[in-house]
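Quick start: read one record
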Amino acid sequence: MRWLVGWSSTAAGAAGIGSAGTTGYDGETLHPVGSQLLWGDPDPLWAVGDWRPDEVRVVKADAQNRIAVLGTCGAGDEELRRALFTARGGALRHLTAWPGSYTAVVQVGRRVTVCGDLAGARPVFYTPWAGGTAYATAALPLADLIEANLDFGHLAALLAAPDVPAALRDTTPYDGVRRIPPGHALVLRAGAREIAGYEPVASLAVAAPPADPDRAVDAVRDALIEAVRARLSAPRHVPDLDPGPVPGMGPAERRAARGMPVPGIGADLSGGPASGTLALLAAGLPGRPGTLLGHGTGAGERLLAVTFNDLAVGGREAELERAGTLAANPRLHHVVVTGGEETLPYADLDGPLTDEPGPSLVTAARHRARLAAGSADHFTGHGARQVLDAHPARLADLLMDRKRRHLVRPVAALARADGSVMVPARVYGAARRLARTPYRTGLELLAERLIRHRFDEPKGAVGASLAALAWARPGPAARWLTGEALAEVSVLLQAEADRSSVSSGQRPGAFRARAVLARYAADLRVLEQAAEIRSQRLHAPFLDNQVVRACRDLPEALRVQPGARSAVLRTVLEGAGITDLPPGWGAPSHASSAAATRAGLRLAADSLVDLFSTPLLAEAGLVEARVVRKAVRAAAAGEPLPLDGLADLVSLELWLRRLLSRRGTCWTGTPARARAVPSGIQPRRDALASGA
């Protein structure tokens, strides 16, 4: 893990703050473990973890005016210096408009500004501390700093309504540690904090001017190319030197056995449109896109393309064939990684402690098997579906904008999939109801569903679309929570509904799409930490700020059409001069990951039942162990239960066990008690008190 951490005090020199740290409870000096100081008192900032030299840049105008950029940023030093002068007047948005994925911190006198991203993949957290405010890009260091206990209300909401911002609010799994919403920045002035949004909010009263589809797709192409170019222009990284020969192994075999990535740049190549687009863009841009000569790969300057072939579960033969056709490009070096039952979900549940829980913990070993064959800098297509596809609730947005004719094709596609002539009327009616439903009413309806345990939803593609036509809906794991936990979340939602005077200020489709993107980005962050390969960096250009902005400007009438994502990405490649795509490229995959998940669940059923013999979730009052064990056995037997809900339960239980079994802390100079959740799980007597 890598993060930055700092704080802002109420007055210079307060609490003994200085460049070496600050004075703790017993007079000891605090500073983060494994850190490098970027600037000192009175508002110090550290970079913690295995940052590369080119990933940490500090540009100073003078002793009191400076900017730090951590991550991959396409701006040069002179551009950062100009941005620093612009930020003196309080402007923020330009700090988030460079290509790449990064966190920017600006200090102007005693004012410190920390910018989060639009997707939520690079979040910012804060907590009151020592008379001021401490902040970080990871929640666990702040939880250690204040010895935070678990926030059971947040954990209940994470299971009951993970896609509902009103349920999660700005909380984290650690009591007292807060999260900055995506698209916002944390502004600290001598310890006092303010959360400021840097994105304009669309008005419901005035319709946005109609966007030109061709120009919008061109903007997506330009943003993606700049995102890829920012990674290609960064200094090439060579992992740690080979520690020595092993009898019977060549250099590449030693590297793979030791879990070290190939020097240079590579990409996933699954056969789908997102990863294929990034691989072809990276291989086709001028320069030296691939791996480095002289480092034992035999690939020269070709881009390393990695395809995962699941031998335990079939059904992806067409995608694999398309990946092989794409890999015939002379600038690609194709590697196929095979995996059997040992790479199925739930097969290997050992792993490191991540900053937060996420359902990807049950599939981390599966991803790690693929990434171990990847490059030091590895492109992934994660996030393309969330930023390009249309959430079903966007049909209500079209009705609000009086664009009924654009509903014809998506509704007709659903009707063909279902085979029923009643589908158009049902979908249109649901979209019309959502367009006329206030946000407050949507929260109240969800609160009532939770308190009454109403979780049954229609089946199939049409059923999923109808269920998604709502402001908020229960999470897949909600059906297995205790009545007390559901009541707590229900009370919380009622309180949030009372605070929502009119509406959320957004259209329901755009609102739901942003919430789903934030949830996905948070889980991708968990996956990066859980499947981390030493000396490797994963790059998800679709989650870069500029790419997210360009995708949000796509007209809804274009976005809702069947096959819109592959059509947009095909146009992006054509604009970059890449036209020889294999037949069937971009076709939707019918081989769902559900088959692999169910196979892994069936094989791991006994170990999962043992995991929930005395679960910490039951000790926390969130579930009953008997109910979860019954659900695991039923799902393994093939009953149609929501598998993603079981993944939520298993991953949260795993995360709690790893958190409570850890030793040590993120800070030096602290007594042994100074770590998160120092007293373990404390059974709750009155859980509804916190929800009220």
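The chain has 26 helices and 20 strands.
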